[in-house]
Amino acid sequence: MSQYPVVDQLQRPVKDLRISLTDRCQFRCHYCLPAEHVAVMRQQSQPEKHLNDEQITAVVAAFAQLGVSKIRLTGGEPLLRKNVPALVHRIKQVKGIEEVALTTNAGLLDPVLDDLVTAGLDRITVSLDALDPELFAAITGTQYPVTQVLNAIQRCVDSGLKQVKVNCVIQKNTNEHQIVPMLAHFRDTGVVVRFIEYMDVGTINQWQPDQVLSSQHMQQMVAAHWPFESLPPQVKGEVANRFRFNDGGGEFGLISSISQPFCHDCNRARLSTQGEIYTCLFAHQGHDIKAVIEQPDLLLQRLTEIWQQRQDQYSAQRSQQRPSNKGKIEMFMIGG
Length: 336
Ligand code: SAM
Ligand code: SF4
Ligand code: SF4
Known about the structure:
The protein is α/β, with parallel strands linked by helices and about 325 residues long. The chain has helices spanning about 40-45, 55-65, 85-90, 115-120, 135-140, 145-160, 180-185, 215-225, 295-310, 315-320, 330-335, and strands spanning about 15-20, 70-75, 100-105, 125, 165-170, 190-195, 230, 240-245, 250-255, 270, 275-280, 285-290. It has eleven helices and twelve strands. It has a twelve-stranded mixed β-sheet, with helices on one face. Helix 4 (about 115-120) links the parallel strand 3 (about 100-105) and strand 4 (about 125). Helix 2 (about 55-65) packs across helix 9 and helix 3 packs parallel to helix 4. The longest helix is centred in the N-terminal third of the chain and has 14 residues, at about 55-65. S-adenosylmethionine binds next to strand 3, strand 5 and helix 11.
């Protein structure tokens, strides 16, 4: 569907666009938007400058011409935005878009799930770092009951979505003891749990390398309970290493951004709420495209230039370059 092949300086195409629908969130995950930094969120958030549905769809249409076929709606908490099903429906009409997915904390999912499915949502990822109620509350900084998140996940499974995943960020000495219970809970349900190495996104979480549990270690923890085998990637640029339980209990994944960076295949672009393109999760600055959003030819030209200039490989260079930790975009502003 691409108008012409567009690749970046490292010959990587653009295939996947992640759209931040809001930079606000009702949770206060301590590694993303800790309660003491809510003032930062309020200061930086300028809802009056947020892109509307029409503008977002225009960016999707331009990216589709450059080769993007997958869209992920994220945030902040994307379901804080009004009428997400209408936006899903619009995006699904764009020629070349094959799949629309959503990443959510599930706190606001229940009332809107049926409408999302009807609108054409294909996949959903729910973030869940602990089954233990007290630990869940401590990590998310909310009183929202973990049982409600689990109910919402079950409703997603029953809803006919193509795929339901759970994202679980593992922090050493915090929640690694949840890995086995999480898999025990979701085995045989069709839900794919992906354990993610804790990353140095943004600055407010004051990430330290010793807070990372390597995926290799996670793999050993799982192997002590269930035998499993590796699965080949389904598509080039897939971020998770996939595994299948030998007893037919299903799949799980490991995302090793720290220990095994996957920049060489990274084909993801990100659109912020205010109309900036970020070509890396660890970028310090985005490219402002708001001025050309309503002019399709100029928008296409600008996106092509941005992608062709791209050289990002932050994770691959993390250990050699020790880049400055200051000024990186925060996760709640750009989405996972
Ligand atoms: N609010 C939604 C949610 O939590 O699902 C969507 C946005 S949230 C920023 C997207 C994902 O990023 C979540 O799964 C979250 O756990 C993950 N995330 C946030 N900070 C992270 C970090 N420092 N390292 C790894 N994953 C992180
Ligand atoms: Fe909110 Fe998601 Fe960040 Fe948690 S990870 S604070 S749910 S944006
Ligand atoms: Fe892509 Fe940047 Fe992550 Fe590398 S560090 S995989 S370039 S988002």
